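Example 3.2
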Amino acid sequence: MTRDYDEFLAGLFDHLDPSLVALILLAVAIAIGLLWYTFPAWLKIRFPHIRWPRIKWPHFTFKRTPRRKKAKKPKAVKPDEPVPAPEPQPDPEPRPQPAVASLADRLAAEGRFAEAIRERLRESVTALTRYGVITPAPAWTAHEVAVQASANRPAVSAPLTGATGIFSEVWYGHRPAGPDQDALMRRLTAEVKAALESPR
């Protein structure tokens, strides 16, 4: 088979130019490619369409159904036996409600002592306003609040002056605040509140 093929090619190249043979082979390849690309539009033969039967396989599912617990039947009460009344339970003793920490105490617990000092002075100014000692203006400084409150209620002069002094050192003097300053500020503002609540 191989020898016959070689002899055929040798005889073909003896009669034709090799470049012409290559051109013919290229044209044949292009023609086959075009026919293959357009198949089966150029083919008029219709092949019968065979429909193969579709096999349905059984679908197995394993579902675990939970067991239902049997409901317990209530114990029947005999009609001649009296039903015992439930014993009254003693009222539990009311538990003391924990004191809600103020915003200043929460700030101090977080280590934000400068903000805690400012909040304590703000609470004192709110108490002075509520008791009608002062009517603060938005532009007032801490010193002006202390002067006006001391003139109207001399009992708050000493603790309020000390509280405003600590506030001015921390916020105006930019001095670091610590737990000692906050504890002193807490004591002074408590004295201001006690002076306001005590009768004149």
